Structure formats: C-alpha cells, structure tokens
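Handover notes (outgoing to incoming on-call)

Open items:
1. Glycosidase: sequence verified, structure written out, both below. Nothing else pending on this one.
2. Nothing else urgent.
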Amino acid sequence: MMRCGKNGGTMRQQAKRMQAGDGRPALDGTRWQRGPWRRWLRPALALPLLAGLAATPAWAPMAQAAPLGVYGANDAKLVREFEDWLGCKVEHLMIFTGQRTWEEIGKPQWFIQQFASYDLPALWSVAMIPKNSSLREAASGRYNRYYTDAARELARTKPFPDGTIRIRLGWEMNGDWFPWAAQGKEADFVATFRHIVNSFRAVSDRFRFEWNINYGETMDPAKAYPGDAYVDIIGMDFYWKKQYLPSDPVRAFEAIRDNRYGLRYIEDFAKRRGKPTAYSEWGVQGDDAGPFIQRFREWVSQHNVLYTNYWNHDADYAGKISGNTWPRTGAAFRQAFCAPGASARTVPSR
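Glycosidase structure tokens:
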C-alpha cells in the first residue's frame, strides 16, 4: 500500500509543510499553514463501474439523519454563505481553538468571539498539546492549568439542545501528523486525555468528550482508548481523494467503509461500548460524488450517529462544495441534507 498526504506530495514536502504551522487563525486573526494529513490506502476494489452512478441520484427521503454541522475556516461569514447555498440552517458548528502555544490552548476567547452573534452550539476541537511540546510532560499533569482555563471559557458557550457542551480532543491521534500522535506513546496519550477530561469536569458537568481517529491508519486505535469513563462519543474523520482511493464513488465509499479501521470498525467499536458515533470531518471532491454522498447519508441514517461535519473549505483538502464548482455533487448534497427527512432546518426567506 502507498502512503500519501492529504494534499499529496513527497514525505519531504509534507515535512516542510508540517514545519510551517497548523492552519487555524492565531489569536490575532492571522493565518498559518496546517500540516499534512496522511492516509493509508486500500487497493481499488475489483467491481465493475455501473452506468449512471455519477448522475445526481433521485431517492426518496429517508429517516432523519444525524444533525449536520460544517467547518468553514472558523469564519462565521463562510458558514452563512454555506447555509444560503444549502437552503437550510446547519444545526451546529465545528470550531478549532488555538494550537500554537499553551497560552492559546488556555485562552479560546478569540475563537468564541468570532461566532458570538451566531446562535448555535459548536463542537470545540481543543488541542491536547501545542507543537514542540511533549505528551510525556502533559501526561504528568504539568499543564492542567491551561485545560482548566479553557474549560472556564468554553463552559460559557451555547450548549446543544440536550444541555451538553461537546469537546473533541486529540483528533486523528492514530496518524503521525499532530503533536499528540499516539503510536508508541499510547499510555501518555491516555493519561493526557484523562487529565483534560478531569480538568474540564472540575469546571462543569455539562462537558461531553469525543475520542476521534482517522480512518485507515495502521495503528490499532484501541491501544490509545482512554476508557469508557472518559469518552462519551466515538468519532472518525475521512475524505475521498481520487488520487489515492478508487475513482468510482461507490467503490470509494465501500473502501472507506470496509477498511480495517474504517466506518464498520468505528460503528462496531462504539456499539460494544454503548456509545454514539460522530463523523467530525468528512469531504468529497469532483462532480460525480453524488452516489458517495447518498451512501454516506444512508450509513448515517442506519447507525447511532450523533452528528456529522462537512469540510466546506479548500485549505488542506479541496472539499468546498458550496457554489457552482460541482453542480451535480452540490445538488446531491442538498438532496441528502436539506430535502424533507434531512436534518438541517430550512433557511427562512429574507
């Protein structure tokens, strides 16, 4: 199997991009480059290409799917543009807080303020440690004060309808591109995760925590599972990129679904623990992704999925679906997530 970056390129090029930074706005609003995300890839499945699958599907409305959220580069304006294009209101946001320093991790106010006028709850992706920091040191409890500071600020944010505030920790920890990469440091990852959960819970009992993996990596993610007492939601990120997965949308979805650590794995893992799942980041590319979107929509409807977040941006992964770049794919997405039976709320006329 070949290993690749989310943006492609050689390992050396990926390393240079990684050194450049990590793609979120700094506290002062400046931009910095996000590091690459790599994918372990499965060989294309030997299934025939079925005629007409690239066309926009016309299927009957299904049972309501999990609420739809969106990532729009931490920019409320981009989220509103997405909703206008979609024709529905998203149910929540997905927001990354600061990752460059311990001070940024402990002070998420800038990110909170960007959406102060946007009356929606958010899935808050909170970095476990900044770059050039050590999981071993964090596992000792040395930095707990920063987690407590962050918790105090995030406890004031709008909760979900069930009264909870959702926090995503250590996302894609089974890869090697974030400073909290867990392979070979599983015990330190688990201890750090538990320190963060305990710090947040000492501030409020409304916090709920997502443990998140990237699909298809070779590491056994269960070795870095913090335990049922510390995890409320089992999450996964996945993206379809034709350079590294089957170009046919049905075969591509099946490859992600059936990978050793793919969609089936995460649903089975969560079911054994009585936990809901979430697909916190996902994206497609091209104007033939309708069948892929349809199958993912069906998958979500058939499982205990708490929420999904579409990556509607071109940074790191060119997945921006709003607008007219991919009209057939866009129509399929609106049909799946804004038609009767979908989760999003209709945007009122203005």
